[in-house]
Structures are given as C-alpha cells and as structure tokens.
Write a structure and sequence with these properties.
- The chain has about 140 residues and is an alpha+beta fold.
- The protein has a single domain, classed as Thiol Ester Dehydrase, Chain A.
- Helix content is about 25%, strand content about 35%.
- It has 3 helices and 7 strands; from the N terminus they run βααββββββα.
- The longest helix has 17 residues.
- The model has no long low-confidence stretch (mean pLDDT about 95).
Length: about 140
C-alpha cells in the first residue's frame, strides 16, 4: 500500500489561471518521498550525516486534472524499484473528492556526499528500504 500524506494547496502555489502551477507537483513528490523514508525510520538528515545524498536522476509527471487553492491533496508514494545504488518511486496526487490530479515517477541514486560519486547503500539504510518494498507488495502499510 502506498504511503499517504496530506498537503493543503497554498495561494502562492497557484498561477494566473488560478490553478496549481505544474512545477509544484514535482515539489510535492518530494514531500511524499521524504515522508515515505521517514515512516520506515530513515531521515535525509541521517543519510547526510552518514555521508550519503539521494539526488534525482529522472522525474516525470502526467497531468490529469487541475488542483486549486485551498484543496486538501493526498500524495501517495510507492517504491517501485530498489538496488543498492538507486531507488525509484511512483506518485499519485489526488484531491479530496478522490480525483487523480497527477501521476508521476522519480528515480534517485545513492551518492557519496563528499565526492558525488554513485555508491552502494550500506545495510543500515538498504535493509529497511527492502523490507518496506516487501510489505508494500504484500499489501501492508509500511512504517514504524
């Protein structure tokens, strides 16, 4: 089951057409991804303190319906691929009525913070990610 987090659309998230500007959805994918990691006990701070960063190498979105000011959105995040060097996620962003506004994906690589070189993630981070993906595939909620 995907990790779900709510987010309210702020006025500054909208454009001259009074709908959510498309670039914000990519930012909201990050909210979902960070919450996904947090729920399994991994914070970006802990990754960085251990000398790792998690840059995006690919991201994409398909826009299905507009979001509007003051909508409460649900960001659904699902891990779709994991190796010791990279991870991929898929996203759905829905409004309160359950209408899918955006679907998308991202791919991140694990790199050494100091050099920027791609590296293998150590057990302390890899194992919780692998366990979460198994739980998702079995239809279980993930998290601590």
């Amino acid at each position: 089951m995907p990790v779900r987090v709510e987010h309210r659309v702020n006025f500054y998230d909208t454009d001259a057409m009074e709908v959510v500007h498309h670039a914000n959805y990519i930012r909201w994918f990050e909210i979902g991804r960070v919450d996904y990691l947090r729920r399994i006990g991994i914070t970006l701070g802990a990754l960085m303190d251990a000398g790792y960063v998690f840059p995006i190498t690919k991201v994409g979105a398909s826009f299905h319906a507009p979001g509007r000011f003051d909508d409460t959105l649900v960001i659904e995040t699902t891990a779709t691929a994991l190796t010791k060097a990279k991870m991929a996620f898929s996203y759905r962003i829905l409004n309160e009525a359950g209408t899918v506004l955006v679907t998308g994906f991202s791919e991140n690589v694990f790199t050494l913070r100091e050099t920027g070189r791609i590296t293998r993630l150590p057990k302390q981070f890899y194992e919780p990610l692998a366990a979460a993906m198994i739980q998702e595939k079995e239809g279980q909620n993930i998290g601590i």
